[in-house]
């Protein structure tokens, strides 16, 4: 039987809405949609690229806690209230995923609060380790 493990980031949304930042199950890591909030201030940067960077930082910590990294991400979904703001994020995203780009989808939709300009969700496969098979 597989063990389900949850990872939290301390976001106030997690407790209020009732979700985990990530769930690890059967060799997979499912990272919840994540908006970009600066952990030092608790507020989102004013621009979409700053918010994208903060969201990726939060997700990177969750992936690391799960035993994975952005190199293990196989699927990513980007949600933006204004699709024209996506292109400025492309260089940061290309740098983050590097030589292992995941399958990707971009959706234009409203987010939980109009202050947020991007939300990112990923699915990763844990790297194989000795004794773990597919």
UniProtKB/TrEMBL annotation:
It comes from the Bacteria. This is RidA family protein. Coiled coil: none annotated. The lineage of its organism: Bacteria, Pseudomonadati, Pseudomonadota, Alphaproteobacteria, Rhodobacterales. PANTHER family: BLR7761 PROTEIN (PTHR43857), YJGH FAMILY PROTEIN (PTHR43857:SF1). Gene3D superfamilies: RutC-like. It holds the Pfam family Ribonuc_L-PSP.
